[in-house]
Structure formats: structure tokens, C-alpha cells
Amino acid sequence: MPKTPITLNSPLTVLPGIGQAVSEKLNKRHIYSVGDFLFLLPYKYQDRTAITPIADLIYGESAQVLVTVQSARVQYGRQRSLVIECRDNSGLLTIRLFHFSKAQMNLFKPDTRVLVYGQAVEGQGRWAMMHPEMKVLKSTEKVILSDKLTPVYPSTLGVGSVKISKWAGIALDCLEKETLQDFTDDFLQQHRLSPLKNALKAIHQPQVGQRESDILNPENPHLKRVVLDELLAKQIGMLRKKSQAQLADAFTLRIDNALQSRLLKQLPFTLTDAQQRVIGEIFDDVTLSKPMHRLVQGDVGSGKTLVAFSAVLQAIANGLQAVIMAPTEILSEQHYRQAEKLLSSLNIHAVWLSGKTTAKKRRELLAEIADGTAQVVIGTHALFQEEVVYHRLGLAVIDEQHRFGVHQRLLLKEKAENTGKTPHLLVMTATPIPRTLAMSYYADLDTSVIDELPPNRKPIETVLLADNRRTELIERIKALVMTGQQVYWVCPLIEESDMLQAQAAEDVYQQLADALPALNIALLHGRQKSDEKAQIIADFQANNIHLLVSTTVIEVGVDVPNATLMVIENAERFGLAQLHQLRGRVGRGSEKSFCVLLFQQPLSQTARQRLQVIRNSQDGFEIAKEDLKIRGAGEILGTKQTGEMSLRIADLERDSELLEMAFNLAQQLMTDNSAMADELIARWVGNAEEYLDV
Ligand code: ADP
Ligand code: MG
């Protein structure tokens, strides 16, 4: 029987090596047919075309070396590792494996030849590689070098790169006989883009002699074409999602200006122009019958809380309930305290759903929420738990969070199902979102920026201080506390473990308590019970604590204007955005504030540069831009850990011009050529909604 030829539409199982199980695994990643492999792209290339002598390795760069094993032993330290000492004619190389099997331990006998590919780093004065790829050669085996670069596909698929490359090759063969929707030749020429077909082939299959820098060169017409395709698909998806969301029905509010004035009259200050403008934008939104979907960005201390309360007030004035969701208990309690202060005098009943609420009290609160007595409900994500039933939920404020995905939005909608309407949504963040990110990830949101700090804020003076000058610093703290001011001391970030982090904070706490016996010092970390944490914050707020030693749990939102000094230990280990957030805890009162960035010596050149960015700038946007350069979008969006980078080949920093182009082109394409718009979505997004869920 003749075999049916494979086409781009064929199911995955026609491909060699794909059975039911692998097919299902790939489906989960939105790969359903042979053609989908065309748009699953390598994100880098390995150069296995040559063997590099150890002496020619370049720090931080990957290379292939051919070595002879001298010794292999297990080293016991903080973490067990297998250390393989090797050499070639030009030098020595240490290979270190932290995860290894018994079989591997016996594999690396002296004089074994091993072909190694990995990133060169330095370890104890000689070259080293951690977990490189290795091939042990038989005694007479010849090394076969490839003549082209090897594409590397994302490992998140759970399928090896070599296989994906092969399947992509089959898809490319099919492509020869089929057509893809593409731009006109004129357009392609004008913008120096290759036709999509050629471009895909060029990206998947490097030619002999090509280097990675040639392919990933932002001027490469092949790369440009594929990147544009992806960015366009993303834009179009966003625009469609936005127009879909606007079809939903929401409560149309009438603005009660008298009530708003009563709120503001209680304040010892007037709103900034920026606060007023943003409140105006929100009021304009909620007076429409489609749900508000607005992101408010405002640097730390810009006064987002009042903006939120203004929206909350209007929901209540219209007989609706509002929720305020904070990322932590500490923050939610602060909001609750503020609400009690500002709203109870307006006869508005706010409740706080906290982890420390007793079961009895909780039942009471749930009843109040269900019958509408509770007008404002404040808490963490527990607000969306199943047992919380709302009477007439009309507005949700999500504080200090810039990602509120489709899933959470659905939850929110469910909570208001009984009303037949979709609640208005206000998301607030102090994480400045650079323009490129805003255009690509938040295109379905309306954004407002509070681009002004309240007046009379004294700038925070930031200093870099080597760790060996702690004693001086401690003296300084003593003097500062004498004047009635308070201090935060933030402990080193230990990403690997909550427990280690708590321990480190404990150590610092002990040390400071010994050095400053006359001071009230408290310790705050993530492993404490939530009521314990809340008590400590309350004590700090009441100035019963002079010095608060803390982990990064105080990163967002905590507002204690009397605290004027923040010490950040091992500042070189933090991200820039995080340092900025932390620093924002001071400089909230009328006294001049300081931030001391303690660092361990020696400080590398880049680390020093990064800390200088923080020292020299207090502009969250500028810092975020630097941060984006240093860390990339994945980390800023928090998608890196999950490996769920939502862009496959485009790089927002490198491709910002193409992003601009996609941004401008998307709407036009949807109107003028909806067939191509549809195909773009199908190529990159499939019918996978969550691909756009950011
Ligand atoms: P964030 O934007 O970081 O959430 P907050 O809303 O917590 O900032 O406000 C920070 C501090 O500034 C609070 O103490 C608040 O009362 C105060 N504040 C807010 N708006 C103004 C204003 N217009 N003038 C003076 N102080 C203000
Ligand atoms: Mg805040």
C-alpha cells in the first residue's frame, strides 16, 4: 500500500519517534501537527564544527574541547559533586557534576578521551565547566566534527534538540510544496525582510560556515522576518483579546463627587496632579458599560493606595462591593488599617480576611460578605477561594502585581456571576514596565502612569559601603535612633532556600542585637506565622521597634514614614528592580532618608556598575530599563523560572524596532487582510488562549 505523503497538516504521529505519549506531551505545548515544528525555533546554536584547545577558551563562552581524563573523584562539600580533572596538550580543565550516577563515576577512568561541549568558567585558578555535554570516546574512535552549527531548541518540551531538529527538517521538506501567507515582495524588499519560507529554513538549518552571530544578527533578513511574524501574531492576539473583553457587560457607575471630596478632605495633603489625572481616567472607565481593565503604574511611594480607594469608593457609592487583593498578609493588613482610617468615617464597612482570622470570626465575615454588609473586602488571593461568596461584586483592585492572568480573571468573573456582569478590574504595580514590554505583553490593558511623587519628598541618598565597614555603620544607626528615627536592615537573598534565608537573617539579628544592646530590635522573615509577622509590623509602625532586621518580605508596600535608613546586605546579589523596591520603603516621610548598599569584596566590574545604577538613579523607569538589559524580559515578567517564556524567537531588547513595526502593523493587517491575520495566529498561537496569558 502506498504511504500517504506527509504534509504540514499531518498529525505528529506520522513523524519518526513520535508515538502517542510524545504526541500528547507536545500537544500540551501547543504542537499538534507537523507544520507546528516550523514555528518552534532554536534559540541558540552550538558550534561543534571545531575543537578548541583549552588554552584558547574564552570566559563565559561555550566551546567544544577534546580532553583526556586524569582523575575523577567525588568531592564532599556543601553539595556532593563529581570532579573530573582533564587535560589536552594546551592546558587543564576541571569538569564538575552535581548530579551524577554510579555508572558515571566509573566512566571517567584515567586516560579516557572525552569530547566535551560546555560553557567555560573559571574554578580555582583553572578552566572549568559545570555539567557540560560529554561523549566518552572508545580508544580508537575518531572524532567526527559537524560542518554546520547545531541548533538548540527549548528544553521545556521534554524532547531532545536533535529530535526536534530532525522533525523541523521534515516539516521544512513539506513546506517546499506548500504555500505560506506572506507579505508582498515589495513590502519585503522595502523592509529588508526575506520571504517567510526562506527565513524559516535559514533559522532552522544553518549553512556551512555560518556563525551564530551571523544568524542572530538583528539585521539578518531571515531572522527579522521570523521575528516580525511572531511579534505580529502576539499583537493581533492581544488586540483580539482586548476587543473580546470589551464585549462583556459591566456595571455602569455614576460618579459621586461629593463622597470623593469627603474622602480627600480627611487627608493632611492634596493629591498630586498625576494622582488626579489617573483617578479621572479610572472614573471615565467605570462610567462605561464595559469592564474597566486598567493597569496603574506608579513608582514606589507615588500614592497608589489613594487612587485605589477612590475607585473603591465609587463602587460602593453605586451599591456594589469592592475587593482589594494584596500579594502578602502584611500588605493586606496595611490596606485594611488605611481603609479603617479613611473609609469608616464615611460609614463604609471594610473587612479583612486574613490567615489569622479565627474560624468563628471567619464565618461571621463570610456571612457579611455574602449578604453585602461588608462593602470592602481586603485580603490576599484567599479572597478568590471558593467559600467566599459575594453579594454584588463590582470592582477588584489587585495591588502590587502586574500579572493578572486569564485564569485569575475568570475566577474574578465567577465571583460576580450572580450579578450577570463582569467586575471592573484595576491592577496596580510599582514595577515600571518598559515600553517594549508594555507594547508586547500588556497591549490588552489600558495603562495609566502616576509619573510624579508627592511634593517635599527628600531624595534618598544611596551609598555603597564595603562590608568591612559595618562597625561604623552600626555606630551611625545608634546615633540615628537617638533622634527618634527607625531603621530597616535587609538580609541577604538566598534564592535556593527559604530556610537558609531565615537562618541568615537570624544570624544578622543576633549580631546586631549584641552590638546594639540598648535598642529594640526585631526580626521578620517568611517562615514566621502570619500573626507574628503582623504584630512585628504593627510594632514597627508604632515606633516600638528601632531596628527591623528583615528578609525581602518587606519588599512591597510597607509604609512606615518614620523609617529613614535602610541597610541592604549583600546588595550585589539583588536584582536592580528589587533594590529599587526595597529602597522605596524609606524616603516616605519628611526627614531625609538614606539607603546603604553593603557589598562583599571583591566586587566585580559589572556588579559595581549595577549598584551604581541604583546609587545614581531614583527613577524606577530608568532602573527598569537597565534591569531589562541585564536580566532580560523573562525574569522581569517572572516567566523565567517556569521556562514559560512566551516569546520563542523574538527578543524585546534586540528587536525593539520590529516590535514597533508589529505594533503599528497589527491593526492594519486585521482590517485589510484578515486571512493572513488568522493564519498568523494559527501559526504561533494555535487555539491556545493561555499562550497569551501573561
Ligand atoms: P505606593 O504608590 O507605593 O503604594 P502609598 O499609596 O503607600 O504609595 O503612599 C505612600 C505615602 O505617601 C503614604 O504615606 C501616603 O499617605 C502618602 N501620600 C500619598 N499621596 C500623597 C500626596 N498627594 N501628598 C503627600 N503624601 C501623599
Ligand atoms: Mg502601595
Keyword list:
seven-stranded mixed β-sheet; 38% helix; binds adenosine-5'-diphosphate; disordered C terminus; alpha/beta; binds magnesium ion; globular; 694 residues
Overview of this structure, please?
Helix content is 38%, strand content 17%. With 694 residues, the chain is an alpha/beta fold. The strands form 4 sheets. It has a 7-stranded mixed sheet, with no helix packed on it. Helix 7 (221-245) crosses helix 22 (656-672) and helix 7 (221-245) packs across helix 23. The structure holds adenosine-5'-diphosphate and magnesium ion (MG). Magnesium ion binds next to helix 10.
Rg = 29 Å
Chemical compounds bound to the protein: adenosine-5'-diphosphate, magnesium ion
The proportion of residues forming helix, as a percent range, comes to 25-40%
- Mean residue pLDDT: 88
Terminal CA distance: 48 Å
Provide the β-strand percentage band: 15-25%
Structural class: alpha/beta
Cα shape:
globular
Strand ordering within the main sheet: 6-7-4-3-2-5-8
Number of helices: 23
How many strand elements?
A: 22
Quaternary structure: single chain
- Low-pLDDT residue spans: 636-645, 689-694
Largest sheet: 7 strands, mixed
